[in-house]
Amino acid sequence: MVTVAVVAITLTVAVPSFTGLINGNRLTGQANEIIAAFILARTEAIKQNQVVVLCHSSDAATCSDAPVAGWQGWLVMREGGGTVIASGQINTGRIKALASPAVSGASDIIRFTPQGLARTSTNGALNAVLRICIPSIDNNVRDVELRSGGRARITQGASASCNAPANPS
Questions:
Q1: Which domains does the chain have, with CATH numbers?
Q2: Whole-structure pTM value
């Protein structure tokens, strides 16, 4: 009887922690995939000496406007409908990916110049955030911040409702 009580208490404590660990790893993995896409797009722009874009894509072949529910996938390609360099999907069954206003609209395009600088679709300096989150868990947000110089970083946070992030200041 004592053994059953000890097992029950252990499971009561361990299972929620284990679920949090799994969800944290899902968020981190997805955020790392996005930051790798930023780095790839920037590197290809410098290497090829031409503009390369990273954009929302629902079909892994063309850029498209993201639905209100968030990004479903992404692709890296040469500007002007060139060759697709890489693409990826976001696990929309569990994870939401929402862009800050600087990236929302204009077909959700992030341009990297041959100098490695991040620019908007109208060639303005771009400071933006792509938020990766799982609704309703603690420590449920990973913000992938992109600065106009082309540098990207991941920050951890919490947002119970997984709202779209603001532009970084």
A1: 2-157 (3.55.40.10)
A2: 0.83
